[in-house]
Amino acid sequence: MLLNSWSLALSLSGLLVIFLLAVAARSTLRVIRHWNPASDDGLQVDLESEIWLSSTLVAYALAIQITGLVLFVMAADSFAEVLSGAMCATGALLAVTVAISSYIYAIPFHNCPFCILQPEYGYISFAIYGTLLTAVFFGLVATLAGLFRGYPGLAAPVADLRQGALVSSLALLLLFALFSSFHFICYLLLGGEM
């Protein structure tokens, strides 16, 4: 099982992300420790270059993680043939699908959060999970940004960031509600499954 191609791909992508984030964290700590906006010496120029390096590494790590999510879904589908119940082993997504799954699956007791990623269900869960996870991300950004509003010169940028993150989060939650209720509304309007 550990030498399965899906397991190896997930493990290697995870290790690569950890490596990229560790290098970025090292640079970030160096910048936090030595940054002086009033200075223009060589150290500040080097630190500015490290900021660009760190942001690039984090962007690559994010891209690898998004690819890893797709690999995870495909791996869970593959593992279902090897391990009984492997598709439903990740219970975190189960809470999202419990209320809507009866209308998507047209089967009252099928609550697997991964099956709605399949083509026969129109890939609706990519829209459902994508909007939900992104809304949660922006909600966390708004909350965590509030921790920095007390620093000098950051009150206005933090307020702008929080406002934008909250608006984005609420808009995405509205889209999540629409995507989640699509099959239910169709069920009510059409008098049965689609």
Description:
With 194 residues, this protein is mostly helical. It has two domains: 1-89; 92-194. The chain has six helices and no strands. Helix 5 (124-145) packs antiparallel against helix 6. The model has no long low-confidence stretch (mean pLDDT 81).
Topology:
Elements: H1 5-34, H2 42-82, H3 94-98, H4 101-105, H5 124-145, H6 155-190
Keywords: Membrane, Transmembrane, Transmembrane helix
Transmembrane segments: 51-75, 82-106, 126-148, 169-190
Q: Which descriptors apply to this entry?
A:
0% strand, mainly alpha, 2 domains
Question: What gyration radius follows from the Cα positions, in whole Å?
Answer: 22 Å
What share of the residues lie within helices? over 70%
What average pLDDT do the residues reach?
81
How large is the share of residues in beta strands?
A: under 5%
Q: Shape, please?
A: flat
Q: Helical element count?
A: 6
By DSSP, the count of extended strands is 0
Précis, in short:
Keywords: Membrane, Transmembrane, Transmembrane helix. It contains 6 helices and no strands.
